[in-house]
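Here is the promised in-class demo. Please do not try to memorize the tokens; focus on the logic of going from shape to residues.
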């Protein structure tokens, strides 16, 4: 499932970086922290690799 917004794609990239040990888990906040805790590395990679070109900046959670 691809990311639905630029913010979601960016948060997935940060969480993926922490999963891989490139950044500290303690540096994560908000959505990226939740994604780190609840998603696998493969799921995060799929979200993070989404092309940002046509994505909205944010999507409301309805």
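The designed amino acids, position by position:
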């Amino acid at each position: 499932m691809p990311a639905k917004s630029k913010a979601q794609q960016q948060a997935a990239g940060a969480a993926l970086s922490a999963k891989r040990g490139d950044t500290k888990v303690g540096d994560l906040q908000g959505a990226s922290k939740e994604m780190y805790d609840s998603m696998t590395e493969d799921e995060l990679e799929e979200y993070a690799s989404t092309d940002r070109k046509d994505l909205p900046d944010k999507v409301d959670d309805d």
